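Bumping with the actual sequence this time:
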Amino acid sequence: MAAQNTLSAITSFTHKTIPQLLKPGHFHATLAHGHTHTWTVTPSNRLKWCSKRNESLCKCMSRPPLQCMPEDTVVKHGKLVESVRELISNDTNDVKFDDLLMVDALERLGLDYLYEDEINQILERCYLQLINKDFLQHGNLYEVSLCFRILRQKGFRVSADIFEQFKGKNDKFVDNLKSDIRGLMELYEASHLCVEGETILDEAAIFSSHMLQKSLNFLDDKEAKMVRYTLENPYRRNFTSFSLLNSPKESDAKILKELAEVESRMVKSIRRTEINEILRWWDDLGLGQELKLARNQPLKWYIVPMVSLPNPTLSQQRIDLTKIVTLIYIIDDIFDIYGSLSELTLLTEAVNMWDIGPVEQLPYYVKSSFKALYDTTNEIARRVYDKHGFNPLKSLRKSWVTLFDAFLVEAKWFASGHIPKSVEYLKNGKVSSGVQVLLVHMFYLLGDGANKENANLVDNDHGIVSSVSKILRLTDDLESEQEENQDDHDGSYVKCLLMEHEYSTINIAREHVKKMISDTWKCLNKECLSPNPYSENFLKGSINFARLIPSMYGYKRNNSFDLIEDDIKSIM
């Protein structure tokens, strides 16, 4: 049940097969195996089924695992969607704090994509009121902190000076805030939207975490659990296994959760279709049978695109990105476990030339792996060209070339016993994390490559791509244990630091790495502030992936990554 709640509350993406209920305009979404659904769209993203209903139902029923929802569920869903829309629609220009609570709840429940226009309108009005000093002038810590967090999450440049009102004459946060547990929790959450140079938010993080830790001594079990979870899993930096909802009214919370539950049931057919498409592709490749020591985890690989791009209309993008994640892991295992240095050098040369010829003399598993990479990349490039009118093959190839070159550098280090300097290791390790390959493919699959200037930012590992890569590499090195038959081929940034004798103990080195991760999040937060050159879908996808990283590598914790995998297995 815990696993089921994970996706119903956090990553619900909706299969809007709603025959007559919602309202008009126009777009297409194509699922695996040619299931093309057409909806119309109004400016407020209300959807209506446009294809012939009987034909769609027959196609749905005749092709497992797609299953049509009962009519009463479809009707219930439509009514709930519109009921929530009425709750957040506001004919006046004034935004109230309850409106922000609704936005927060929709985002935490994974329902925000249903109401993008309404949410954007609320936040734009809120921001204008805030800078005109017509909003929260006498707000308490809880209200001000939540307002700051919600606006910053959407890229609004809200000044951190808004928290100066909670400081005393000694320029420190006043002690009488210590009993405001809800306010301290929200202040702690807000502090994780900090960018470099915002000292007051650094102070807010220290103050709120200290006060919340002390509060654990006198809170009841339920309150203590909420506080402990918030401290361990700040929303900005973690994909949490459950959400602590802030709701203006109990009735509103009830209808939101009810919609989230129905929404979750309705999208199982999409997830099931995507997973089966991925499993068929993986079985057809045959690499799982050929590479017995390599990781064979297609369901786990699906989690990254599923969490990064939860919007239900991005089905094909999730399938394609799962293939990319799969190939990154398989190539990594070939370098770590199977290939000799001479074989890996020939393989890297083949990728640089984008020619299968050089690998003909290599073992079959190397040839089949390169062919899978070659065919999949070319297929994605053709799909992007057909849909968006530009060919990204050169950029996609470049991302693979840089990854293979980085893998080969590490293979040579391992073969020679060389331990690089920490700066050298991290520069190469950011590339060998595979993040650039993933985000470059995501960027183009979302149709964002038409602007060459923006494309160059992604292709050359600037900004968001660099930050997410660094977060993954440092988190992996900090948290991962020797497992999965890897025999410590990958090295470790912590080990490099210790070898340089800069840090006397491993604990000091680990604390240094944690600070580096925190500082990198500040850079990532800054990159996401408006104006920026990226689409909203790419920003969301990059941030969601970064939020998932602690769960991917938190082996010692019961984390949401494992719960999500259990949930995926349960719908098969």
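The tokens above came from a reply further down the thread. The two ends are 16 Å apart (CA to CA).
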